[in-house]
Structures are given as structure tokens and as C-alpha cells.
Amino acid sequence: MDTVDLILMEKGSVVRCIEKDKNVSDAAKEIAKHSVGALIILKGQIPIGILSERDIVTRVVAKGLDTTRTKIEEVMTKDLVIITKETPIKEAMAIMTNKRCRHLPVMDEEKLAGLVSIGDLNRWYSRDFECTIRSLNDYISGSYPV
Fold first, then answer.
1. Of 33, 49, 82, 104, which is the most exposed, with the fewest CB atoms less than 10 Å away?
2. What is the pLDDT of residue 110?
């Protein structure tokens, strides 16, 4: 069974983080600078929150809050759903669907090992489906190896 570790080996394990006492404007600049969808907020090596582009739009901009005065800690998602490198990819997809979240921090024991997004999982499944379709086409056309 394919696990999240396979996705991290392909995409890398770099996770963009920011301190909880920074303001939302700082976070938006970091998100734009690194072309990521979310930043993790750490306490030591443990994720304590996540701030996504969507959080900034719905919790700050749509409410008319000042991005330079609103602290990340005030608007970040605190109830994180965390997975491990051994989590099956199908399970990670089910978690995202059921919890309606787009990013999952990945832990390896007590250390942050990466971050997977809904885009990462969709990309994985798309390639898997393409491979299956090619194999079935080869089988049907008679060019499938014996």
C-alpha cells in the first residue's frame, strides 16, 4: 500500500514555517515568496497551527481586519489533523475529505517531516490512474507483455 512517504520523497520535505506572533501581512508575504498554499506554525518541532491562503481570505480580509495588526495566532487553525509518513495515501485523502482540510502536516516520530496538500494527493492519483489506463489499453490491444 502506497504511503505518504512516497509523496514526500518525490516532492521533498521542506515545510515553510512562521512564528505565531508575526502578523498576517508577514505570512501573506511568505506564502507569496515561496509559492505555497500554507505555512506551519511550530512550537519547538511540534506543529501548533497552520495558516493557509484561504484562512487569510476568510478570517482576515473578508472580516475587514488589518493584516498588519492581526497576529497569526489569532486566526490560524489550531485543531490540526496530523498524519505520519506511514499513513496510506488513500487514508490521507479520506482525512482531507472528511475534515474538509487542504493540508496535512506529516510527522516522523517527534519531528515535522513534511506537508502534503490536496494537490499533491490529486497529482499522485492522476498518475496512478494514467498508468492503469495505459496498462488496460495495452491489454485490450494485445500489446500487453505476457
1. 33
2. 87
